[in-house]
Amino acid sequence: MKKQNVRTISLIVCTFTYLLVGAAVFDALESETEKRRWEALQAVEDRIIRKYNISQEDFKVMETVVLKSEPHKAGQQWKFTGAFYYATTVLTTIGYGHSTPTTRGGKLFTMCYAIVGIPLGLVMFQSIGERVNRLSSYVIKAVRSSIRCKRTVASEVDLICVVTTLSSLTIAGGAAAFSRFEGWSYFDSVYYCFITLTTIGFGDMVALQKDNALNRKPEYVMFALIFILFGLAIVAASLNLLVLRFVTMNTEDEKRDEAQAAQFMTKSSLWTNEALQGAVKLEGDVITSNGSVLSGYVGQDLPSPNGSTSTIFSCRCICLKRKKQESQNKHLLPEVVPMQDLNYESQSMHNMGAVNGTGHISGSHMAIGPDVVDQLGNRLPLRPSNQLLKRNVSLLSFRI
């Protein structure tokens, strides 16, 4: 199985395991508190109904009025300032939910606006994040050069540390400002900043929703918008290094697999070429009728040592390579003494004469090598006796 598939399956298993663990932790932390609050609210509701002697329907109407009037406490939400704040939450995918369109035209335009605005915002924040990483790399290089470090190039770990520090400072500074303007505790302000910059946007805590701040505090509105845009750019720079690094691992594995496949194909082609070259070399090796091995001739007739013509056959078999090696290494083998080189009984044979019908040599014949020539010049083959054959065999010696 490929590494990409293994990683994908592992990510799916880890994600679902993480979800199960998170659900169990949230259940343990929030379940009892929710139950107590619900019981407390039910007790207050029953007490109000008994005190003012109102029905359940009247109480539901009062509850609806309170919920619907909550957004209007911050002033008009759909004037230009409030609309700009709403458009920012749509483009950045924060989606607080503090104000939502009620008209059909507003809902339709929100969908069309989000289709174009969300990709545009993501590309913009990604580009800003890359510029921030490039600036951080330049600053790190300048600082290391000033203190004369051996290695001045910024690594990914260095950039991650820098952008993480910038994100932490942004959240800490924004939390201090929102704690002052909104009257929240510092911990709640940190929680709001984190939920905002990570684009979670629960909407349980929303800035600019008190004392008609959208219309009366333009500097505070400007600070809130700049904080959201700048903070998202810093977080995008951090995510660009943290998340995309893991995402590109799959691409790196695919490239590695492709490189291995290409390398395997290259080796296979090299092996094939070597085999073809070997076959071409063997095609030039020929064997003559007398058993000698020649190279460089294909399908020709060459004169043999005795003057006749020997047909040459081109051998394409791989097994002939071994025969060629044996012929090349012939000098390494023990040398056999030829029969005609053995000077056995030549003088005695000449004195004895030619061979008669009974196997004896007459004196009127002359022995030439292994044959006998009579007086008429005819060459008769010599048929040595069993004693001579045994002696000939014994004279076949190896000289190492």
Write the layout of secondary structure elements.
Elements: H1 3-52, H2 56-69, H3 80-91, H4 104-146, H5 156-182, H6 186-197, H7 213-216, H8 218-283, E1 285-287, E2 293-295, E3 301-303, E4 309-311, E5 313-314, H9 320-328, E6 335-336, H10 346-352, E7 354-355, E8 361-362, E9 366-368, E10 371-373, E11 379-381, H11 386-395, E12 398-399
Antiparallel strand pairs: 1-2, 1-5, 3-4, 6-12, 7-8, 9-10, 10-11
Helix pairs in contact: 4-5, 4-8, 5-6, 5-8
Please characterize this protein's 3D structure.
The chain is mainly α and 400 residues long. The protein is built from 11 helices and 12 strands. It has helices at residues 3-52, 56-69, 80-91, 104-146, 156-182, 186-197, 213-216, 218-283, 320-328, 346-352, 386-395, and strands at 285-287, 293-295, 301-303, 309-311, 313-314, 335-336, 354-355, 361-362, 366-368, 371-373, 379-381, 398-399. The strands form 5 sheets. The chain has a 3-stranded antiparallel sheet. A 3-stranded antiparallel sheet has the order 9-10-11. A two-stranded antiparallel ribbon has the order 3-4. α4 crosses α8. The two termini are 61 Å apart.
What is the straight-line distance between the termini? 61 Å
Beta-strand residue percentage = 5-15%
Structural class: mainly alpha
User: Based on CA inertia axes, which overall geometry fits?
Assistant: extended
Mean pLDDT: 74
Series of secondary-structure elements, N-terminal to C-terminal: HHHHHHHHEEEEEHEHEEEEEHE
Instruction: Going across the biggest sheet, name each strand in turn.
Output: 2-1-5
Largest sheet: 3 strands, antiparallel
**Uncertain runs:** 279-284, 296-321, 330-370, 382-400
